[in-house]
Write a structure and sequence with these properties.
- There is one protein chain.
- With 553 residues, this protein is mostly helical.
- It has two domains: 228 residues, Orthogonal Bundle (MetI-like fold), CATH 1.10.3720; 264 residues, MetI-like fold, CATH 1.10.3720.
- 77% of the residues lie in helices and 1% in strands.
- It contains 24 helices and two strands.
- A two-stranded parallel ribbon has the order 1-2.
- The protein is globular.
Amino acid sequence: MTAAVEGAPPHRRVHGRWGWAVAASVVAAFLALPALAVLAQVFTPAGEVWRHLIDTVLPDYIVNSLGLALMVAVGSFVIGVGTAWLSVMTRFPGKGWLTFALVLPLAAPAYVVAYAYADLLQAAGPLQTALRDATGWKVGGYWFPEIRSLGGAGLIFTLTLYPYVYLLARAAFLQQSAAALDVARTLGLGPWRVFFRVALPLARPAIAGGLALALMETLADFGAVSYLSVQTFTTGIYRAWYGMGERAAAGQLAAILLAFVLLLLALERIGRRGRVIHNTGNRTNPPHPARLSGVKALAATVACALPPLLGFVVPALALLRLMLDYEGAALNARFLSAAGTSLLLATRAALLPVTLAIVLAYARRAAPGLATRAASGIAGYGYALPGSVIAVGILLPMTAFDRLVNSFMLAEFGVRTGLLVTGTITGLLFAYAVRFIAPALEGVESGFERITPSIAAAARTLTRSPIDALARVHIPLIAPAALTAALIVFVDAMKELPATLLMRPLNSDTLAVLAYGYASDERLESAALPALTIVLIGLPPLILLMRRIGQGR
């Protein structure tokens, strides 16, 4: 058998490699279409609507988006880096479970946490009610922080997104050699100077990556900023598309938001290249944590306990209180329908990106070269695109196609076709594929990396074709990694709001859309059940992530 395969005509092997390269290029081209459609809107004539936006709301979109990004960057850096350093370099009471608890806010989308804090902090909420009962004050007779503000939105995003920085910074600190830090101490540097002059520069690329993820999620959010009445580009895109019916204006706002995201990615890459610091220490000799006692130990415990307490425990308990106290939170037909739709969409959304990721990852192995590397890189940028940008990038060509077909059928046959592809499940699944191909690709590629060259060579020798090798050898070996990636995409799809809100078929609510609709109508008691369900569904991948953290230290 080996001789037969090795004696196969060389052109067959070459054609097989070209076939995989073409397949990867086609997948990448389709995934890049929404971004290209949005960028094409730059050349659309502006018109009166665009001038109206410039004169009225566009400055607010820019100021609020940049202000949010700045607040989240500072807050996520302080909390994420500070807690990561404490969890690696010190020992204090509760460190074991707090190391894992610090990741919990990732299970709660920002818009869910916004709903919870809006109920807690509003005038009729439990905190202000208790304050008035204790003091005898009247509503309006005292100052209380306003959650529906730019500062409130910045706090919500910081509490839910700092784990991105925490996870990457912690991994970077764990990889630093104790020898490098000990040498710095022998040179007379105190703990603070060791942190700022040695540890922090070594961890800079990882921290920059975590901050980039947090900022991209901030710019992509719609549910939280919309509910908290903060005007950003995502709220502007939605209002232009649905409120004013101006698709061109929505496309141009999406193009500006896309430019912001691409600039952010470029700055992050430039920052990594600009000052590369190589860690030559032995990673098997990790830093030695110092045991804290007294006030320092208490301060470390409090510092590491507050972020998960405020970012996960308090919102979850607030939603649970709402769900138990109000009849509107009962299981009803609308909730069950939304839950079923969410499960169906998320399952399909998990299968499609993982399948495409397998094609891209295997193409890099079967046909290594510039084409397949570029295809993977282009596909990976999808996670950086906000859901609203992807939705507009898909809806623009879809609506143009529907109008073209309708005009043709009306002129030739007198038949109105209406919407054929706009507002369909197919379009929404395409948006999910673009949005979530990056985490799927990362998980699948990690599975392929565990396949040794000898196994890959044996698979090529003992099978008839690359497709046969993929089906019979590679897929069974990468199945655990692919299932993990599918679970992550499943949870992300359950939480996705902007693209779903813009592209879902009529009368087809998901849990995220249902919670948003109830909250927009100020029916937070009804929004509690779907919101809490989304949080609970987000816990399984976090458990997997926590297991990895436990294996890391």
